[in-house]
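Running this now, will post back.
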Amino acid sequence: VQLQASGGGLVQAGGSLRLSCAASARTSSMAWFRRTPGKEREFVAAFRWGNGDTYYADSVKGRFTISRDNTRKAMYLQMNSLKSEDTAVYYCAASLRGIITSQARRGDSYDYWGQGTLVTVSS
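Update: finished.
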């Protein structure tokens, strides 16, 4: 499965961006992670197609919304009220397995990764 992330860019603090991730095949679970230079990769949000469960990092809950279309090949991340600390390269990830709650936030739960899209939030 190939993943293509897009939608990153430069935005002022308090602004919004919408990231997209397109998959080359149907998936069962998809997620967003992010990485800032010098820091470890951080979980952002995830969902499972089968039961519709969604998961969010506490740092983005209430500001970010993960969504998908019915093809099981695309997902989106609506990011509102952006802060400077949201600046990072955002990666989409996918699994052909339906993740469970204990797995959703772990990077090793996902077998496929996109190339990343840079989000820069200026203060």
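The longest strand covers residues 88-95. More later if anyone needs it.
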